[in-house]
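pasting for ref
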Amino acid sequence: MAEEAAVVSRPTQQLSSRAGWSDIKARHPWLVFLLSRVARLVVVCALLLVGTFLMVRLMPGDPARRILGLQATPEAVELTRHRLGLDRSQFEQLWSYCRNALHLDFGESFSQGVPVRELIAERFPKTVELAAAATMVLLIVGFGVGTLMAVLTRDGRRPRLDATYGTSMGALSAVPDFVLAALFAVVFGLYLKWFPVAGDNGLSSLTLPTLAVAIPGIGFLSRVVRAEALDVLSQNYVRTARAKRLTSWRIYVRHVMPNAAYGGVTLAGVSFASLVGGTVVVEQVFNWPGMGSALTSAVVNRDYPVVQAGVLLLGATVVIVNTLVDVLLAIVDPGALREN
């Protein structure tokens, strides 16, 4: 009898634990949602921390030899390796790196001899400035063009305009950002001389890099927004609003755009990773003083601390932004909380 009771009690305990978790989710959906997102953020950042360390160790070449040159003696190379801490075991280096990174201490640059934290404080805001400007252009133009094309081509209207739009947006989304950057630099910088080609001289210097990073995403985002807007325009509540003789502006602003924005915002958050990656490449073309040029120089010089800190920071930025997008979408659609 005792064994039968134990066998019966196990499923009962499992059901009660599941019911308890479901009850917690039902009572505190926001708490469960935020805790799950914070846990995911911590796990991803930890993987980034270890992954960046392992990645730079796979880079060919010896940082000490790179600093001293090919003519350096083996004794000088070993002394430099000891000074940089490269003569310790990989596990000791990883432990030291993770421990210091938790205190936001990324060591000193091998090639420049300055704290990496100072280098990041100088370069990272410029990358954020470029990524933020590109994101703003992406959202404004992508949502605007997508919604406008949905209005103009709904119910099969203007098929030629629809075909031209689809072809042009598909072509824009297929062009790599570095190709656009080189094209803009030659045409608008060197030939027409409308904008400076290199450096940071204010808004004029920011224009071409911003467009080069944002335009490929605009082609993709506008098509998604158009598809979402067309779906919303076909819904019964929009037909009811038209039957009530509401103004077109009120219908589009209050009914179409908020409902079409859900999929667009999701895609914009996912696209932010490519925007950050695009800034790293485009910064090189326009000599923009951000993390892109610093990372490129660090990779060439085998500057482990700068590469580790730069990749970790850019990756963590993408993860944090995606987490914020998840929270924003949960605010827009609270019903999604119970599905997570």
